Every structure is written in structure tokens, then in C-alpha cells.
Amino acid sequence: MNHEVIILLVEDNPVDAELGIRALRKHHLANRVIHVTDGQAAIDYFFDGKTDTRAQPSLVLLDLKLPKVSGIEVLRRLKSDERTKRVPVVVLTSSNEDSDVIETHELGANSYIVKPVEFENFSAAVNNMGLYWMLLSGPPVPES
Amino acid sequence: MTLFPDLPIRHKLRVAFLGTILGALLLACGTFVIYDMISFRRSLANNLTVLADALGNNSTAALKFAGETESAKSDAEETLRALAFKPAVVSGCLYNADGELFASYVRQPGHEEVSHAPGPEGIRFEGNYLTIVRPIVLDGKRIGSICLKSTQEELNQHFKSYVMISGLVFLCVSLLAFGLSTALRHIILRPISDLADVTKQITDRKDYSVRVQERTKDEMGMLAHAFNEMLAGIQERESALHSANEALRESEDRLNFALEKSHTGGWDLDLVSHAAYRSLEHDRIFGYESLLPQWTYEMFLEHVLPDDRPEVDRLFKEAIANHKEWSFECRILRVDGAVRWIWGAGEHQLDEAGKATRMAGIVQDITARKQAEEEILELNASLEERVRERTSQLAAANKELEAFSYSVSHDLRAPLRAVDGFSRMVLEDYAGQLDEEGRRMLGVIRSETQRMGRLIDDLLAFSRLGRQQMELAPIDMHQMAQAVFDELAAQEPPGRKLHLDLQPLPAATGTPTMMRQVWVNLIGNAIKFTKGREIGEIEIAARDGGDGVPVYHVKDNGAGFDMRFADKLFGVFQRLHSSEEFPGTGVGLALVQRIVQRHGGRVWAESEVDHGATFHFTIPDPTT
User: Fold this and answer.
1) Is B413 an interface residue toward A (CB < 8 Å)?
2) Minimal CA separation from A68 to chain B, in Å
3) A16, B409: Cβ pair inside 8 Å?
4) Where do runs of H (alpha helix) occur along B552-603?
5) B422 in contact with A at a CB cutoff of 8 Å?
6) Fewest Cβ atoms closer than 10 Å to its Cβ: which of B194, B569, B582, B610?
7) What is the 3-state secondary structure (H, E, C) of B169-234?
8) Per-residue pLDDT tens for B86-110?
């Protein structure tokens, strides 16, 4: 069975984004990575009416500090909507500090990853969520 | 004339003594005299009777031939003249059967009347004379009678001599008795008069030290002895009483002194008349220089400020009604116009019947104290205010610091990620185009940025510690140490051989998260510094520190350190090894020390280069 793994990366920092995308591609962790740079874009992706024609992400990597609409707001929106609340959201934090960890859990995120996104912490997060199948994706598909 | 009971004893004795003796003597003598007189009289009568009978007998012949012969009468007179030999007889008469005088003899003629007729027969004592008339009987026939008359001269003589002798004896005995009594009564009287004298002495001079001399062993001696004992007892009690009085006076003086010096006035109120006795200090408190002639409860109330009066009066009446203590504070207006605060208290005094008729107590001027209290309250209020301010300032500062360090750490980490990440990318993608040196340089960049990341993390943790609240919870040290070891060991590369010797550890009380940090750092260090060993041996145990506080230690067989630099060990950023040998920021041990100290304990280390190190720390029980 070939599940297509589509990951939505919501990250405004270009360096962090580059590092993350590189890791995901290098280790074949996704078939496709969609990168948006602010919270509004993330919401639009899900709710702007063009949902059906778009591919549903298997996973959302969400940075909390975002322009326009904050990551918290995005998270809330995603988790409160019937259509999107089952989408796994992994919050990206810059430290292992308690405050960050507590926040992510309170907000309803499924897991968190301390930046930068790398193979180890990504697969650990995925394992934590029980989404083992995501690590068994097939050969890369050229991205759109 | 003094009555006998009031006579002095010596006179009484003498009177008794003499009275008894002389009375007895008198009685005896009297009895004897009377008896003697009676006997004498009887014998006298007997003698005369015998004489009469004898003469009568001798005269029978004459009587028989009385009328017949002439010589009969002279014979009879002759016979009668025998009476001359009895000087006491004054007359003798013979009478014939008809009672006519036949013959008579008279000692002194004319002196005595010769009776012509005999009196009745028998013995008669008439006046000074003894007259005896006896019948003369011949052949059973009374032929006449004889009458003899005698003086009682003998009797009187006898009587006189008897009385004289008696009188003489009487006198001698009297003198003897007098002398004897004088001599003897001294012996009897002396103790009594001694006693009397001593008693008078004691009464006059109140000197209980005198004693009665015990002269004799009779009842007086016993009395004297008992008296002396009684005196001794009295003397003791006197001196005890005296010293008690002294002590009382002293204590009273001290009390008064204390009352005076503490400006406490005493009062004693009669609950019926409302009049009160007071000490001078009492009146002084109300502003008077000397003791007022009188003082009542009403007068006291007048000095109380009108605002305070109702309450004071209410408390007073309540105390009286319920037999409770009266205690109050109020303001008074002194005579000199000053307003002062006073404090007073009073207690009921019961009389012998147990009724509360008086109330006694004290008043004290507490104006100074009241002022001080007010000042303290003000100070406290301002102090609290300042503390509140300071606390909120601190809280604000803390919050700022937290926000600052949080944002700084996040902001610092982002570029670090970039540097580290991109250097890695270069290494990965352009490894082929780099020579050995290039790759090495990039490696340095990477390791240094990673180090910086760790520094930031450690610094953040260190600063967070200062702001963290301590909590007190029981901590299973054994379990924690084991868990931490397992976690850290798992992070080591698979080839690493580590051996843990974990002994039972006593539980501690403290903040679990902080304590965990201590274990993480110490065990982490042990793991780190034993990297060069074939097998990393780590021993964790605890022992009693001597004063009941357990001492934990983490011992390793790693690289050890030079004890000369031991004091640098716990300084922030201090390292005793280069980062080439062993990576580390130098904050870890500082963190450990900070945490242990905040728990009230100590941490220290021992080591020998290349022979491992042992880190000891104590966590005292905060409840002791």
C-alpha cells in the first residue's frame, strides 16, 4: 500500500524552513511538502473553499510564532473544526523548556518537535503519535 | 480589816498554822480542864461524902442518946471538931431524926449560916459552897442526918493551877509554832513569790527571757518547770512573730517601692459607701500633688473623659454584678488639664463572711505606652506598605527577567540553528569539494555552535532555578537516581559499557524537579568522565553524616581532577578540563551546588587525577 505523505509546513523563518524541508526530503519522510509562511495562509489552505481540490495534508508541522495569524490561533481553528480536527499537528518549538511543552499539550497539539527538524526528532514524534505508516512512504513523487 | 481571802499567803499560812495548832491545843486543854474539873469535883464530893459518912457513923452514939444525956451533944460536937483538920469544910451539922439541929461545928463563927434544917439529901453545889447531906442510919433506921458544907477552894485552886499550866504550855507551843511556821513557810512561800515576781516582771517589761528558779521538786517545782517551758514557748513564738513582722514590713516596703517606681497607684474602694483609700501615687496620677482628704468612685468618674465614661462605668457595674475582675483603659483629664491614658484593674475583696464588700486594685498611667503602640502601628502599616511595594517590584522584575531570558534564548537559538544546520548542509553536500582541512574547519564551526546552544540552555536553566519556587515533597532518591541513570545511559552510544552499583538510599524532602537536576548533572558527569574507561563504574550510595543527616555520593572511576583546583569546581563556567577532553559548559556543577544549598545542604568533591572522583552532598530534613 502506498500512502502518499503530504506534510504542510507552517514556518516563517526561511532558515528553519530550509533545514526542515531538507531533512524531510533527504530522509524520504514525505512525498510532498507544502510550505506556507504565515498563519493566514495555513488557515486558507484548509478553509478557503478550495479544500476539496487540494490534497489533504497527512501532517501539519506548525511553528507557533507566525505573522498575521499566530500558530496558536491556527491550532485552535484546526482543532475546533470537524473537518480538520483529526489532522495530526506537530508543534515546532525552539527549546525543551517546560513552558513550551505544557503550552503545546494544552493547545491540543498531538506532539512537538524541538527545532531544527531532523530525522531523529521527526521520527520520534511520528512514533509517539503512532503514525508508523508515515515512515513507510514510497519513492518520492515530484512535488507540485 | 482585810478579809482572809485577800491576806497575803504568808499571813494566811501563819494564821492557818497557828490557828490549827492553837485551836487544837485549846480544844485539848479545854477538854482536859473540864474533865479534870469534873473528876476533881466528883472526888471532892466523894471525899466529903466519905467524911460525912464517917462522922455520921461516929455520931450515931451521940444521936442515939441525944435527948438522954447531956454529954451527947458535946460528944457530937467533939466529933464534928474533927472537921478542923479539913480546912475546906466551913461547917458541919448534925440533925436528929426530926430534922432538928442537934450539933454543929463552924470554922469561922458568924461567917456562915447554920441552917436549922437540913436540906434535901444529896450533894449540892450552891454558889461557892459544896453542901452534902447524908443520912445517919443505925441498925437500918434513920436516926438523923449530917450536913457538911465545904468551900470550893480546892477546886478553885486546882482549877487555877491547871489553867496556869495550860496557859504556859499554850504560850510555849504558840512560840514554837510561830517560830516553826516562820521557818517553814519560807520554804513553801519562796517558790510562789518567785513565780509572782517573775510574772510581774514579765508583765511590766515584756521580757520573756526571764525564768523561774526551780527550787523544789514538789508541785511548785513542777509549776515552775511548766512555767519555764511555757515562757520558752512564748519566747520562740515572740521571736518568730517578730521576724515575720520584720519580713512583712520589708516586703511591704518593697511593694510600695515597686508601686511608686512604676508609677502605679493603689486603691481600695468600699463598695457600699463608694469611698476609697488610695496611695499617694494614685492621686498623683490624676494630677494632684498630695493625697486628697477624700475620694469616691464618683470623683474618679469625673476625671474620666466624657466619651470614655459610659464604657468605664458599664464595665465597673458589670464587674460588681458578676463578681468579676474590673479591668479598663480610658483617658482622663488631669487637674493640670493634660489628657492621659490610664489603665486600671480591680478585684473583689471578701470579708470574713465571704461577702464582697470591697474592691481593691491599681491604676497606671500608660500614656507613654499608648503613644509607643500608636507609633508601632504606624510603623507597621508603613512597613507593610513598603513590603508590599517591594514585593510587587520584585515580582515585576522577576517577570521581566523571565520574559527577557525566554525571548533572548529563543532569539539566540534561531541563528544558532541556522549556523549549525547550514554548516552541516555544506559538510553533507560539498564534502567532496572540501579537503581535510575544510571539513575540519566546518566541524569546528558546528561543534562551537552546538556548545553555544548548550551554554544558552544551561544559563537559562540556571537563571530559572533562582526564580523557581521551592516546594517540599517526599522524594524517593533511590528510584530517582535509578531512573536518571537509565535515561542517561540510554543516550550513550550502544558500545558504551556502564556498570551502576546503586545502594539503598534514604528518602529526602525537597523539590523533586530540582533534585532530579542534581542527579542528572552528577550522574551525567560520572558517565561523561568515565568515557575513557573500558567499563564505566559508577557507585551511588549514602551514609549517616554523624549528626543524623544522610550524605549521598556519586563515585566514578573516570578521569578525576586535580584537588588543587577543587574550589573552582562549583563556580559558574569554571572547568578543570578542556572541552576537547570532555565537553561541558561548566554550569552543571554550579547548578548542583545552587540546588543543594537551596535545600539547606552542602556539596563537595574528592578526587585524584586519573583515579576517579566522588561527589558528596547532603539534603537535611527541613522540618527539623
Assistant:
1) yes
2) 19
3) no
4) 588-598
5) yes
6) B610
7) HHHHHHHHHHHHHHHHHHHHHHHHHHHHHHHHHHHHHCCCCCCCCCCCCCHHHHHHHHHHHHHHHH
8) 887 888 888 878 777 778 888 777 6
